[in-house]
From TrEMBL:
Cofactor field: Zn(2+)
Pfam families tied to this protein: MATCAP (PF08014)
InterPro entries: MATCAP
SMART domains assigned to the protein according to its UniProt record, in alphabetical order: DUF1704
Region of interest (Disordered), ranges: 1-39
Molecular function GO terms recorded: metallopeptidase activity
Biased composition (Basic residues): 1-10
Protein name: DUF1704 domain-containing protein
Organism: Luteimonas viscosa
Length: 439
């Protein structure tokens, strides 16, 4: 199949032995991050709270739900779908979860939440416990009729206002200038390694594991601090740095900052952290210099596809809607349709546009930008984070994304504070290559 940036994603041979992956061929390049270091000006959590915090972080790390819901063999799936006249598709296949979900749930629910010394910490940690319980249920229900309800419970559905915004974007935002897919995985790895080297000049313990895999169902993604790259990815060179800033400058940097907080949940994510993370990631693409119109259209298409999945549409119907009614290329339409039907109907894809909308609303209202990188949390946690900071359990971010060091960053951010989501894109690539970031 053709990937979502217009590249040809071929089935490929292994680039190296698999290490710590779910059975697919992989090449792992490792730059380990050191153990968490205490941040000056903070204090340790009370004993029981610290134990619960550590246990929740451990369960979160074991429960790699994103990989558990990543379909296998999507290239062969496209070949089959195309050969059928684009009317039929086999059930999605997944790797078997290595985790004993029932035993994990028992461990989770046995934690001494009622004994946590601070009501403030008890509230934050109990909220995370409930989210992990719902996540276990989501993975358990994979491929069953109950999956969509579990997904809505965890990630939300598609509210009327979000669907209206998505349809407006699809109707009004045009694709940007077409660009050749002239960069491959080696160039992306080089850009990521240069990014890591830049951060290590400020924080010598900053690191990142990179896994190159032939069958991840996505061009690139970060899961539990590891960056996964499609072994055959191709994308325009102007999109390399924006995507690196999305994955490393947002997801990896906030994990690094969160790991230096006394509250370990800020590294793995407080409950409902996904919308803000993805909103920051997409905003990073814009602030780095190139967020094309088709990227915004893809986010809108994901909302439309999630809504269709909620209403029992299958991959062929979602594909036809996106390809025939909204003009998406076959590769993009199929990719979005498959993503929407992961597990039986995964509504997480709606959080990208929702998170971006809510982040811009917050910034337009004067919300501070830099504190959003202290860890992984939701916008609704702003007040709680301030209370935790006053108690000595949260500190300002140790690192900020590299693009914030650009000379014109303050001006660019001020401009973003005036924009609505449907205006947040570039019609043309930058004259100065987007891959040039502050040295």
């Amino acid at each position: 199949m053709v990937g979502p940036c217009g590249h040809r994603r071929a089935q490929c041979v292994a680039r190296g032995p698999a290490q710590g992956r779910r059975g697919g061929p992989a090449d792992v390049r490792t730059r380990p991050m050191s153990r968490e270091a205490a941040t000056p000006g903070t204090r340790a959590l009370p004993r029981i709270a610290a134990g619960v915090d550590a246990a929740l972080a451990s369960i979160d790390a074991e429960l790699d739900w994103l990989l558990a819901l990543s379909p296998l063999g999507t290239d062969a799936l496209w070949d089959e779908f195309d050969a059928s006249g684009r009317t039929r598709v086999s059930p999605l296949r997944y790797a078997e979860p290595a985790l004993d979900l029932d035993a994990t749930r028992r461990r989770l629910l046995a934690l001494p939440m009622d004994d946590i010394e601070s009501p403030l910490l008890a509230g934050v940690l109990s909220e995370k416990q409930r989210e992990l319980d719902r996540t276990i249920e989501l993975v358990r229900l994979r491929g069953t009729d109950g999956f969509i309800a579990a997904s809505i419970d965890l990630f939300g559905g598609v509210e009327a206002g979000l669907l209206e915004l998505a349809n407006r974007i699809l109707a009004e935002v045009a694709a940007s200038d077409p660009l050749p897919a002239d960069s491959g995985v080696d160039e992306v790895v080089a850009a990521v390694e240069a990014e890591v080297a830049w951060y290590r000049t400020q924080a010598p313990d900053f690191g990142l594991e990179i896994t190159i895999d032939a069958d991840i169902g996505s061009l690139m993604m970060v899961s539990h601090g590891r960056l996964y790259l499609d072994a055959e990815l191709r994308l325009p060179r102007a999109r390399v740095q924006p995507l690196v800033q999305h994955e490393v400058g947002t997801h990896v940097v906030t994990r690094y900052n969160g790991a230096r907080q006394p509250l370990r949940q800020l590294a793995v994510g407080l409950a409902h952290y996904d919308p803000l993370q993805e909103g920051l990631g997409v905003l990073a693409e814009y602030l780095c210099g190139y967020l094309p119109g088709e990227r915004l259209r893809i986010l809108a298409a994901r909302v439309l596809a999630a809504d269709m999945a909620i209403h029992d549409a299958g991959i062929p119907a979602i594909f036809a809607c996106l390809h025939e009614d909204h003009g998406f290329a076959t590769d993009d339409a199929f990719d979005v349709a498959v993503r929407a039907l992961r597990g039986g109907g995964l509504t997480k894809d709606a959080v990208y546009l929702r998170g971006l909308r809510d982040l811009l609303d917050d910034l337009r209202g004067g919300g501070a930008f830099e504190p959003l990188f202290a860890g992984k949390f939701a916008l609704s946690h702003r007040v709680v984070l301030q209370q935790l900071a006053e108690a000595g359990w949260v500190a300002p971010p140790a690192l900020l994304p590299r693009y914030t060091a650009a000379d014109d960053f303050a001006q660019a951010l001020a401009h973003c504070r005036t924009l609505t989501v449907d205006a947040l894109y570039h019609a043309h690539p930058p004259r100065t290559p987007a891959q040039e970031v502050p040295a």
